[in-house]
Amino acid sequence: MCGIIGVVSKKKSENVMPIVYECLCNLEYRGYDSFGFATVNPHLHVLKNVGAVSKFINQDNFPLKGSLGFAHTRWATHGGVTKANAHPHTDCTNTIGVVHNGIISNHHELRKELIKKGHVFRSETDTEIVAHLIEEELKTTSDFELAAVSAVRKLVGSFALVIGSSNFPDVLLAFRKESPLIIGIGKDKFFAASDVISFLKYTKKMIPLDDYEYAILSRDGYMIKDWRTMNPVNKRPKTVNWDFEMAKKGDYDSFMEKEIFEQPLAFRESFYIDKPTLKKVVQTLLSAKRIYVTASGTSYHAGLVFQYLLKELANISVIPVISSEFQNLAIVDEETAVVFISQSGETADTLTALRYVKRKGGKTIGIVNVVGSSIARECEATLYINAGPEIAVCATKSYLNQLSVLYQISFELAKHRGILGINEIEALEDQLKQLPELIKLTLGSINRKVSEIAKDIQYLSKSFYIGRGIGVPTAKEGSLKLREITYDFSMSFDGAGELKHGSISLVDSDMFVVAIVQNDETYDDMIGNIQECKSRNGKVITITSNPTSELIEKSDYVIEVPEANPLLSPVLYILPLQLLAVYVTKLRGLNPDRPRALAKSVTVK
Ligand code: F6R
To answer: pLDDT at position 122, please?
Structure first.
């Protein structure tokens, strides 16, 4: 979950270090425990420290200079958050530098062997062994590429590596296995980065590396090869249709707020899905005997909505399983289809589930945001959600766009299954098209009220989020938003009915309860649940499109969202909960974009 970047300029006279710095800042959302830079000029110079890079260094007076550089922002896994453990890591001769994202699982054995050979280690990290392994290989060859390949072949685990050496000052090597690594092809510069946002300002042309591939970036050009054989791999660059401006905060205090308020625009983009792929996805699902949907966190909540949709619209049963438990629970064969939902397309748990399904011969469908990401490429059919770059750790606009794509799949399936009349389905399609306007209207109408409620409840650090039916995923998603950035204890259930089976004993005057009250057959039961919480002195915040006098009387606060078909309501009901999480976080003086111990792209299991 760390971020890595390497930049090589074609012009030896150009100083790329301010650009390396800029690219690294764009990767900070992947981790910000510590950071480090290296350049070769003519010796290997390393600069590192603990903390977030953007707090320490000023781009204009960047202390290192060089026409080639690499850098790292860390989310600690192996070894504590110390300067010694910050990357880049170097060998005994201080000529080889390495930055790494991933986990090298055989590092203990390799370290012992290297120590026996006289190597001295300066950090507790798994990464440092790579520098020493290359140093060792260079004792028997003068070829940097060969030495690095031989070293990488000894590694077990997952890695994206960028490697440079002062003895080979015109080249950077970038290796990939199971951790994302994208090569950027600029006019006069080459990049190797954990994601495309990092270098988007400089180029939209990119080549995502596949497992077992490496790139040689030099002043003369770039080459992609397979590190098992060292044979060249012919790959054409792709162009991403994201703009760098989309990845800027603008006038907002945080990326999370910016991304919440750009949802009306982002949602519209979700309508431009690839129609032939949609057809393929629908055919795959129609012919499957068993369908699973798997994902993690917010993306899993989108999967839960999909389960309700397919039951209601197409009488199709979908089994949702969180990705980290997929292999323990799912029965997969050739007649199984699995839908993988992921914003980043790199989540290790989801990727592991995907590879398991492929080994078992199941059909794989991806719903992904990041173009060219591992999940997007490895699924047989992938629909992109077109949410644009999502920078805040907390997922917001990607959730809404995932829902939109899942609606579009569900409507197509409904047409084939004939459970609903074509008029009903067309009416739903029309309503979906109107949602961007309704999202805008909702954000405008609730914003002030939510910020006032946030002021009132900011001192209550316990909460339950409850819903029934299609309101359950909304309750779960709202609760996740709150706890991930406020660090408050917040819980949700597989249905508000579960409250009375134990958890209601926690409700007291120190707790607020968010009730998702849909205007459907679950309404009366939700009133019952609100009543139960009120009689135990919980403060109730009700989200509803139908603020009856009964609801107003029984709730402490009522937030009204526009009426929409209940099946489409998750898109509108989640908006006040996204805002509530941001406003409580800000009132506490915390940064919503920087939740402690979390990173945007979870590439470790
Ligand atoms: C919550 C959040 C996480 C992600 C989860 C899956 O706000 O961001 O729970 O949803 O880590 O990530 P993706 O969708 O990239 O697979």
So the answer is: 95
pLDDT band at 598 (very low <50, low <70, confident <90, very high): low
As annotated, the active-site residues are 2, 600
Strands 238-239 and 290-295: unpaired
Give the C-alpha separation, 104 to 111, whole Å: 11
Which ligand 1 atom is the nearest neighbour of the CA of 370?
15
- With a cut of 70, say whether residue 403 has pLDDT above it: yes
> Rounded to a whole number, what is the largest CA-CA distance in the chain?
83
Task: Give start and end residues of each alpha helix (H) in 165-262.
Answer: 255-261
Q: Report whether pLDDT(478) > 90.
A: yes
* pLDDT score of 457: 94
How far the first Cα of the chain sits from its last, in Å, is 10
- Residue 114 C-alpha to ligand 1 middle, in angstroms? 38
Full-prediction pTM beyond 0.70?
yes
CB of 256 within 6 A of ligand 1: the answer is: no
299 alpha carbon to ligand 1 midpoint, in Å? 6
Separation of alpha carbons 246 and 543, rounded Å = 31
Residue 210 CA to ligand 1 center (angstroms) comes to 22
Q: Which amino acid is at 241?
A: N
Mean pLDDT throughout 559-563?
96
**CB contact at 8 A, 385 and 402:** yes
DSSP string, 22-85: HHHHTTGGG--SEEEEEEESSSEEEEEEES-HHHH--GGG-S---SEEEEEEE--SSS-S-TTT
Please report the pLDDT score of residue 605 as a whole number: 66
Asked if 346 contacts 171 with a C-beta cutoff of 8 angstroms, the reply is no
- Please check the confidence at residue 58 and state whether its pLDDT lies above 80: no
CA distances from 568 to 93, 414, 429, 434 (A): 62, 15, 10, 11
pLDDT > 90: what percent of the chain?
83
Question: Would you call 168 exposed, middle or buried from its count of C-beta atoms within 10 A (0-12, 13-18, 19+)?
Answer: buried
